[in-house]
Every structure is written in structure tokens, then in C-alpha cells.
Amino acid sequence: MKKAILAGALGIAILSGGYLPGLEVSKASAATTALDIQEVTKYYSLSSYEVTQKESFSLKKGEELTIFVNNSGFPISYTVFDADNQVIGTYHANSPYGRVFQAVKGGNISVQFQAGANSSYMKKMNFTAKFALSKLH
User: Fold this and answer.
1) What is d(CA 80, CA 56) in angstroms, rounded to the nearest whole number?
2) What is the pTM of this model?
3) 70-84 per-position pLDDT tens digit
4) 119 Cβ partners below 8 Å, 6+ apart?
């Protein structure tokens, strides 16, 4: 169990390209961090210029939401909102990497997807988004 938790944390650090504090400490010290990672995958199908409802995730201060989008080159972007409903940023969904967002305070972090113009023969743009919540205990 502890090895799986540590492996999950290391995988997120590698995918996000970030530095995970504690990587250089002994295995016993790193394994004592109680980290619970929950994943949810959602499927979307959008027409040109369509916007989704906001997906909200309740996080405590210091907990993280990682977003991975599997997109086949469609003009999809997403906007992330903090607990005060202020925009953290808007990102293109054509990246092979996940993005990690840390809660500055307790509350909901929300994500909303937007489709751009689709000039291909396909009427709908299909993609998936995986949300990984790293919760501390």
C-alpha cells in the first residue's frame, strides 16, 4: 500500500515536470506521508464554440488537483477557477502532460472546457479528461 502511494506521488511529479519534496529522503520517511489519490475520468463531446458546465472538486488547503486531457488535436481549451471563482488560468488541451493545481485555501477548484472552431468533417469533438485528486490525511 505504501509503495503504491509513493509510486503514485512519484508518477504525478514526473508527469507534471515538478519537483516533489521528499524524493531524496529515506524510503521510511517518504512512505509515512499519508497521501490518497483518487482519479475520475470524464468523457466529453463538444460542438464548435460549445462550453461545458464547471466540474468542481472540493479540496482542503495544500491538496492538489491534476488534470490530464486526452485530446486528438481538436481545438479544446480549459479554464481553471480557484475557491473564490477567480480564474487561475486558461490552457490548451493538446499537451501530453498533466497540470497540477494546489489549493491555496479550502474550497472548490473548478474546471470548464471550451471548444474552438472545428473545420474538419467531424461535427463533434470527443475527448477525455482524467482528474486526479491528491488528498492529505
Assistant:
1) 10
2) 0.71
3) 988 889 999 999 999
4) none
